[in-house]
Recover the amino acids of this structure.
């Protein structure tokens, strides 16, 4: 081998060695950059995961607060519905007892209903209407008994009406300008709002307040 060839071969080997060393450095740097990138990505992933977790926890807490806030409202709604059902049961029971004329003396009730109406009407001559059955059972003396309890001089005529099958009376003056419907179920219907309030108060369903209105 000549001197020139030897020098060229040596230069080539040095260049290859330098290239190998540089490539090794590049590989090492690439590994380091990759490791740094992986570490950064892992940290970012952890941050994002924690951020999402915090958001989810906050939303869950908010939803829990909303749900808990509705609990008293729902409890009150259910309580009101239960009270309403109980009051409706009482109303229906009262209605059935009136129709069956159970728990009260019917003749006395008819007299009281007629007197109650007449005392609130002007005039001195009235027609007390009963069902055919009641007129037959209660007798002709009913007019006198009613008149004696009114508290002023009045003339009472007993008449029958087919629309009083539920019991009670309808009272009119002679000219039918004043009419007082004291049929049993009609009277219960008028009285029920106040009776309902009183029952609710006595049963502690609602707070006690001042009584309202007169007895119709």
């Amino acid at each position: 081998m000549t001197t020139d060839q030897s020098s060229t071969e040596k230069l080539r080997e040095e260049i290859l060695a330098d290239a190998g060393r540089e490539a090794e450095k590049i590989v090492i740097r690439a590994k380091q950059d990759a490791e740094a990138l992986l570490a950064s990505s892992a940290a970012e992933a952890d941050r994002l995961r924690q951020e999402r977790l915090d958001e989810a926890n906050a939303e869950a807490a908010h939803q829990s607060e909303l749900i808990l806030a509705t609990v008293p409202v729902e409890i009150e709604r259910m309580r009101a519905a239960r009270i309403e059902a109980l009051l409706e049961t009482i109303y229906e029971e009262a209605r059935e007892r009136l129709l069956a004329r159970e728990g009260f003396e019917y003749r006395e009730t008819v007299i009281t209903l007629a007197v109650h109406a007449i005392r609130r009407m002007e005039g001195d001559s009235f027609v007390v209407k009963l069902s055919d059955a009641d007129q037959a059972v209660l007798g002709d003396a009913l007019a006198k008994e009613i008149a004696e309890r009114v508290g002023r001089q009045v003339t009472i005529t007993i008449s029958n009406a087919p629309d009083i099958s539920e019991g009670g009376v309808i009272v009119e003056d002679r000219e039918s300008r004043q009419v007082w419907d004291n049929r049993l179920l009609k009277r219960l219907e008028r009285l029920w709002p106040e009776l309902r309030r009183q029952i609710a108060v006595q049963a502690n369903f609602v707070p006690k307040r001042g009584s309202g209105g007169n007895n119709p």
In short: The beta strands are 125-130, 155-160, 168-173, 179-183.
